[in-house]
Structures are given as structure tokens and as C-alpha cells.
């Protein structure tokens, strides 16, 4: 009987601790939250998103070209990652719309550029070379995490209690 009571107390304490951590995280979370991937239509929009975003916000920009292998798959991965990391601003822009289309030939696309506080943190050309032929959002996530470019994942209210304790 003592063991059952002790186990219930531990579960309640874990739940309370988790709730306190979540509330503290919400209070200490600075910067805006984003929904989805933002399409940039010009070089000016590209510069504006880099220079004017909140200083604590990580901005991931996918430069693509229709018809180039891997670009469409990377666009899908970005959509998934945008829901997993709402504090990161995910954007995409066509190479032609950047105003420097000649610099982005088909052999360097898709490209991922990562910025924070206006500083370039990561510049990955032909990024799909780092993945297998068929890749998913988890592969892109692992790649960005390998370079320390993504913040910690935010635990939503539906997170599994036992997983959150691990």
C-alpha cells in the first residue's frame, strides 16, 4: 500500500513539476511565434526578414528553383519543421527572386541559409547532398541540430508525460 501511495505521489509531483516548467518557459519565452513557412517574393523582402527580425529569432531561408532535384522535398520538410519550431522563422525564396539568380545555379540548389540577429550562422549549398536520395523533415532537423542551429523543441500540452521526463 505504501508503494502505491509513493508511486501516486511521484506521478503527481512529476505532473506538477512539468506544469511549473511549462509556465516558466512561457513567461521566459521571448520573441514572436510563427506559423508556417513564409514566401519571400524579392531580394528586398529577403533582406528585410534578415535585418528586421527579432534579435533572438533564428531565420532559416530555403533558396529553391522549380525543377531542381530536392527543392520540392525540402519545401515539404520546411513545412513540417515550421510546426515543430514555432519560434523559428522559416522562409523560402525562388533563386530568381533573390536578385542574384546567376549566383544560384542548379548545382548549388537547394540552399539553406540560417541567420540570427542579422548574422549568417549557416550557409549550406546543395544541401541535399548531405541526405539520402529520399529524405524527410527529421533528416533536415538532425542536420541543422548537428550544427546547433535550431533551438530546443517546445513541448506542447499534448506531449507524452513519460517522454517529457526522459
Automatic annotation (TrEMBL):
<comment type="similarity">
    <text>Belongs to the phosducin family.</text>
</comment>
<protein>
    <recommendedName>
        <fullName>Phosducin domain-containing protein</fullName>
    </recommendedName>
</protein>
<dbReference type="InterPro" id="IPR001200">
    <property type="entry name" value="Phosducin"/>
</dbReference>
<dbReference type="InterPro" id="IPR051499">
    <property type="entry name" value="Phosducin-like_reg"/>
</dbReference>
<feature type="domain" description="Phosducin">
    <location>
        <begin position="1"/>
        <end position="154"/>
    </location>
</feature>
<dbReference type="Pfam" id="PF02114">
    <property type="entry name" value="Phosducin"/>
</dbReference>
<dbReference type="InterPro" id="IPR024253">
    <property type="entry name" value="Phosducin_thioredoxin-like_dom"/>
</dbReference>
<dbReference type="InterPro" id="IPR036249">
    <property type="entry name" value="Thioredoxin-like_sf"/>
</dbReference>
